[in-house]
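Task: sequence design from structure.
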């Protein structure tokens, strides 16, 4: 299986930089915390988000090439993120124009898919936690 730690760190980077595309870090003074000023730099977070997206695409390609089994829900969520992310990249190109309703739908779907991935990850952690607790009691 491709490196799971790389996947987790990249998803964390994408979550932080995705939130950074909205002016939340500056608005709520998170960028004023020492060491977090970079979170208010839109261009930096934008480039880091694209870098993280490239790493995730590479990771997904390796998983598909290695025929690693992926849960259907996670695969659907990742597919939605990739497709809406590609639509957002197109939307940001100077010669491409989408109607405002389409832009809103793409943005909300991308954000919703990101939230769904986070909730799915939390559900997985909580589902596995009782099994780990039982294993540690037996030892």
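Answer:
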């Amino acid at each position: 299986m491709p490196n799971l730690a790389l996947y987790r760190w990249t998803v964390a980077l994408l979550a932080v930089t995705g939130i950074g595309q909205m002016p939340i870090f500056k608005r709520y003074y998170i960028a004023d915390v020492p060491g977090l000023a970079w979170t208010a730099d839109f261009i930096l977070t934008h480039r880091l988000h694209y870098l993280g997206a490239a790493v995730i695409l590479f990771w997904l390609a390796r998983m598909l090439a290695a025929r690693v089994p992926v849960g259907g829900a996670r695969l659907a969520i990742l597919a939605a993120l990739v497709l809406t992310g590609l639509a957002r990249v197109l939307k940001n190109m100077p010669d491409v124009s989408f109607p405002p309703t389409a832009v809103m739908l793409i943005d909300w779907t991308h954000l919703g898919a990101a939230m769904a991935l986070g909730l799915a990850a939390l559900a997985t952690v909580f589902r596995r936690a009782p099994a780990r607790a039982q294993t540690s009691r037996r030892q």
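Residues 7 and 24 are 25 Å apart (CA to CA).
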